[in-house]
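Task: sequence in, structure out. Protein: Butanol dehydrogenase.
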Amino acid sequence: MQDFKYYAPTEVVFGKDAEEHLVEMINKYGGKKVLVHYGGHSAERSGLLASVREKLNAAGIAFVELGGVKPNPRLTLVHEGIELCRKENVDFILAVGGGSVIDSSKAIGYGVKYDGDVWDIYARKYVPTDMLPVGVILTIPAAGSEMSDSSVITKEDGDLKIGYSNNICRPKFAIMNPVRTFTLPPYQTACGATDIMMHTMERYFGKVDDMTLIDNIAEALMRTVKDSVFHVLKNPEDYRNRACIMWASSLGHNDLTGDRSYADFATHQIEHELSAMFDVAHGAGLAAVWPSWARYVMDENVSRFARFAVNVMGVPNDFTDTKATAMAGVEAVEKFYRAIGMPTNIHELIGREITDDEIKELARKCSHDDGRTIGGFKKLDRHDMEEIYKMAR
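Result:
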């Protein structure tokens, strides 16, 4: 058992009536003037925004609104949110949506308290010690941002997508009503399930493999999501399985399934460049990349991949050939992705052949011009990144 730190301060209100606690939560965490931050028209069409407005008005809580968050949330909207919060003296941010909205809200929260450009924080030029508090009404289980210390923002100038982690950005509360996920399109549901599993897989294939209890929790979470997604794709109003997926979203990225300091997250870093360049769904990008990453790094610890194959993917254990069992596990993941409508290579992801020049540019950005390596299971340099992109093409 390795030494670790665990910090999960977010208060969770989960269930069919969870939204009834909104005012209580905002009052508890000191919100007097709220920015209601959201994405597109779905929150409006579903009636959720109307319900939020009604509750805030009835409680006498002042608020302003900013919509328009897109997948792979943009820095320009973050700048707009920062200026709005300063102008209106906002002291609390309510994110109504999924990971993109929550990440954008966190970035706005950082920026309001910082005199410079908030991008400095993501570029590692400034470490924030204060920010506006954030609360969440979750509508898209995927990113786990509702309980995590992470935020990922895309800077349009240069197609740069960078994540930043700091415990001060963990939301004060997260309101989770699985009913709000009934109307998610199948593709978005599948992308979300892929992202949830990947957050756990990135920890599972990390630097250490002697965390027996954590491994068992991680395996159970991955099996549950893998099974539940088929049920909700067949019946979108399957509350029990929607609830499993929604709670797994949080547990998969609040460090319960592994300390980030021991994790890998190379697949996430490689995918961030794909979604920045091609503006694809993050979960789909992960599905397109992971099998190639797995085959590239497998020899570092074949037994780990064999355990995953057997305990998560249900592959029979070939005790005479550990590598064959491990490879069968990767193939089972690809079969799973195809079954839920996810791509398993970049061509399927972007709808065309990726060029050699594009691959070189992806590897250049991912390596920060040879300024960093990524991964914990196996350290990957720029050459390694380029080879994985080629395998995934």
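The beta strands are 11-14, 33-38, 62-66, 92-97, 134-138, 150-155, 160-165, 173-176.
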